[in-house]
Amino acid sequence: MEFLVASAIGILTAGGIYLTLRLRTFPVIMGISLLTYAVNVFIFASGRLTVGAPPILSDGVTTYTDPLPQALVLTAIVISFGMTAVVVMIGLGAFLGSDDDHVDDQPEASNSKAEGQS
After folding, report:
1. Per-residue pLDDT tens digits for 58-72
2. φ, ψ for residue 67, nearest 5 deg
3. Which run of H or E residues covers position 77?
4. Is 41:1 a contact under the CB 8 Å cutoff?
5. Is pLDDT larger for residue 9 or for residue 51?
6. Cβ atoms of 70 and 59 closer than 8 Å
7. CA-CA distances (angstroms) from residue 6 to 15, 29, 41, 78, 115?
8. The whole model's pTM is what?
């Protein structure tokens, strides 16, 4: 089970880095989302991978799962959803403002710089 989860984290991370290095707005947003999911699965797996164990320790229970990583992942999901919405709106505004969705566009040279160099 650990190998499967570690492989999933590696695949999500590799896909997220690949998409983040693209120079278009939508793939960058998807890459950041994949990286967020990879981190969430990593945090969730840090609380021990056990099947059918209760999240709290009670009488007669010898194994339990740690509830702290579960709470952290739940909070991270909510925050990443909100941040994804903000980034999508910023990217949409940049696309509508310049009719281009390249991430690395160079700013246009202003007239004062061009006149100062002549």
Report:
1. 787 777 777 888 889
2. -80, -15
3. helix 67-98
4. no
5. 9
6. no
7. 14, 23, 9, 23, 57
8. 0.74
Joined tokens for residue 48: 């021990």
State residue 111's pLDDT score: 57
Question: Which residues face 24 on adjacent strands?
Answer: 102
Asked whether the beta carbons of 91 and 27 are under 8 A apart, the reply is: no
Q: What are the distances in angstroms from CA 4 to CA 41, 45, 46, 78?
A: 11, 11, 14, 25
Q: Which amino acid is at 89?
A: M
| Alpha-carbon span 67 to 115, nearest angstrom | 64
Spatial distance between the Cα atoms of 34 and 11, rounded to a whole number of angstroms: 9
Beta pairing partners, 109: none
Reading the block at residue 104, the tokens are: 């690395």
pLDDT for 3 equals 92
Query: How many residues does this entry show for the chain?
Result: 118
pLDDT value of residue 8: 95
